[in-house]
Design a protein that fits this description.
- This is Glycosyltransferase family 2 protein.
- Pfam families: Glycos_transf_2.
- Keywords: Cell membrane, Glycosyltransferase, Lipopolysaccharide biosynthesis, Membrane, Transferase, Transmembrane, Transmembrane helix.
- The protein has 243 residues and is α/β, with parallel strands linked by helices.
- Helices cover 37% and strands 18% of the residues.
- The chain has a seven-stranded mixed sheet with strand order 3-2-1-4-6-5-7, sandwiched between helices.
- Helix 1 (17-28) links the parallel strand 1 and strand 2 (33-40).
Amino acid sequence: MNLFSVVIPVLNERDNIASLVREVSQHLHGRVAFDIVCVDDGSSDGTAQVVLALKNEIPELRLIQHEACYGQSVALLTGVQNAYGSWIATLDGDGQNDPADIPKLIAHLEKSPSDVKLIAGWRVTRNDGPAKRIASRLANRIRRSFLHDGTPDTGCGIKLFEREAFLSLPAFNHMHRYLPALMQRAGWRTVSVPVNHRPRGAGRSKYTNFGRALVGIRDLLGVSWLVARHVRAHSRPVQETRP
């Protein structure tokens, strides 16, 4: 049986993380072998203490803590590097991704060809405010026009991907928003699967639409350059002939 790891980058989500971790455990117990890696990206609200208090209840849970806030992509990379599973499921720490969708993504993986290395969640119905929905729709449209990755919702936090394939990708801050294009650049296939999207339970988003736009423009240009300049050689072994 494959071991699956669930990686949850989290920043100041003290009031959301406990229920989210319990849901992950509830939906995976008895279905697959798994571990859960929470990466606390420099929280200042006691998030780490909440996670530590859950360890006796959920033995599959581990906590890794950054000394400062390095960003979601760096926290994701830390989690994947320390995960035990050969396949990684990711969730945002705010509870808007539904852990009940993880078995759905795993079932989709089990019937997919071996060259599919990423199954991305697709939030068909968004539970966000109007400004955030409009900004996300516009960002996805611009990204698709540049990258042609065929992915309707690259910003969805719930994904399932092969650990080895992910670790072979170029690592940079905000890379998590471009995983489909980066996987395709490496020669792998990606698919999108409709998933549930829930209202935020407590707290507020750590990123503003304006902040996303500022970094998104530079990142999009950089990823476009990476995709355009990538060369994948096709080779074959040559047998030595003997006289």
